[in-house]
Automatic annotation (TrEMBL):
Organism expressing this protein natively: Bradyrhizobium guangzhouense
Name under which the protein is recorded: DUF3298 domain-containing protein
Domain DUF3298 as annotated: residue spans: 216-244
Signal peptide: 1-34
Keyword Repeat: no
Signal listed as a keyword: yes
Alphabetic keyword roster: Signal
Amino acid sequence: MDIEVTYLRANVRAGLLAILSAIATIALASPSFAADPKPDAAVKNRNIDARVFLDDKIKADAPLAANCLADGKKWLDKNAADAAASRKQDPQFFKDGGWDFERKYSIRSVVADRYVSILRDDYMDTHGAHPNSDVNTILWDKAENKRISIRPFFTETADNGATMKAMVKAVIASLKIEKKKRDSGETATEDWFKGVEPSLLKIGAVTLAPSTETGKSSGLTFHYPPYAVGPYAEGQYVAFVPWETLKPYLTPEGARIFGGARPKADADEQ
């Protein structure tokens, strides 16, 4: 009998050790159990908990990282000041805690080993009806170590000019396709698209789309946050304009960097 009890205890102990080992393995492998990444800049006080993250590829480029970090810190300071002012004016809205903000900078594409498209995604919770999000973009010239626009790629980009009108037409056509995919065709109306104007400053946040051809861009992608071209419930939209549509308006540099097709994986992710 003593021998049986000893075996039983040993088996129970072995079983417990196996279970604990399995739990530890899952904890290490699961993102939910992993340590949260450390923000690259943050502000945390009773009014606000705000964080900025740069992806690893951005961090590997010192001038780009410094530019994004400076931009992110300005955003932190502004929102911290706004939160403090809001608490002073309406303290009742802070009874459940302070505001929650997060900004992430991530590289979307690198074209011709020179032009870097960056997505800047924001999350904001100010204790309103629901949290909100925003998206903007940065186009970085590695050769000059500065931000640029898409102007160098087009012969003209005047407001209401031929290039911008062609872009707007293609953007709206793309948005209608995306809305149809989401069964949201009822909001594919002029009222929702009136904010997309033939102007570089009003057409939407733009990036150079990746391509099936190495070192090239397959066209332009325009990124719209909730409310920009549809109700909040529809979320963000991305419109794709293939480079062939814009071919008549390209400069020599534009002709050099555009080519190929949009990878299916990129379209599926949007």
